[in-house]
User: What shape does this take?
Amino acid sequence: MENKTLVERLARNLKRSKKDINNLLGALNVVVADKCANLDTVAIPGFGNFAGKKNNEYVGVDVETKKKTLFPPKVTVEFTVSNVLKNKINKKK
Amino acid sequence: MNKSIPLIELAAAVADVAGTGERLSELFLKELFATVSQVLIDRDSVTINGLGSFFLQSGEDNKDTVIFTPDESLASQVNTPFDRFEPIGLDDNVTDDVIAALTDSDFGVDSKQQTVEDIEDDAQQISEVAETTPPLETTSESEVIQPSQQPIEDENETETVINEILPNVEKSSEPIDNIEQTVVKSEKPKTANQEKTNNSSRNPFLRGMIAGAAIVAAGLLIWWLSTGKSNNNADNDIAQYLTETANESANIKDKISIVTDTTSTTNVLTKISTRHYGRQEFWVYIYLENKDKIADPNNIPNGTVLIIPPAEKYKINPNDNESINRANNEAFTAYTKLLQHN
Assistant: This one.
């Protein structure tokens, strides 16, 4: 399902305009980014968690050239699916 | 940091950013994730612009699991402090021991002490100023603090004393109020001492000595006034003296402006930096300025009042790439130190 179809379905179900739905989606993106940048976890019951994880800097070595490279730290978003959703998905399988 | 944000808190934050009610925000979130869940159960994938894509993948025990790929904009936003850093190639002679030594010496004690000393000096100055300012009110917007100025002493009393001390001296055509005040402070003790001396001692010789000293002092004063120095030079000398005494005086306080900002769920360091300096990269200078309050720049408690240093202090210029690169290097150094402590 593409974003456009998702927005249309949400607008229909919530009886709001597509503009309102897009505004709320944009706000959700901002908040999730903020929380994950602070290494917090956004918990959606029955769906899953969005967590910010920090990977420390490290020195990588090329196997062939033996050249060393210092990689900077990095913060990423990791998603963990809820067991409830996972069971529902596999139940229907 | 490492906080779990429940749905209610998420809905409140989304409502705050979107400018809608919390009820609508909550309904939206529930409907959104219910719809995405149903699509996944129906074995389809979902793409949400700005957030990412959800799709199924076979996992352990032949069971499907949900894989999430964040959108590029989300990944970049989350990694903002380190987004500009690139991998750095190391020379062949850089061994593991050299790397460990480099970490300890370049990012360890020396630079830390220098940074701490600088911040302690700044903190001491700020605390001295803070003692003279009224308490802050926490808001979500930045504030400029201007301490109140106490009234200056009555001028009539000072003018009378001056006329008694220097009856025959021509006054400046443009007398400055503060000069009279300052003169009073230095002359009043003398006046009291002179009165005591005159009242207690009846020795004519001593009386004559005192009169002679007074005449000499008056003559010096006349000479000083008539040496041809311009009023501007006298003003400059007196202004300089006033500047020095004003700092020590408890009655006259300089106006000092301190800019602050308060953290909240959506008002984090990068946003504060963007608001005050025009770019988020300069968040590290706010962190360094408030290092005594911030244990972890990624997890600052809501409601923390942060002092925003002037841009000149750290040579902050949003239009200068060198300034931006310097900020990024500072951020890298700061995070390296934090990782060492953790």
In short: Chain B touches chain A through 78 residues (CB under 8 Å). Chain B has twelve helices and eight strands. Residues 103-119, 137-198, 250-255 of chain B have pLDDT under 50 and may be disordered.
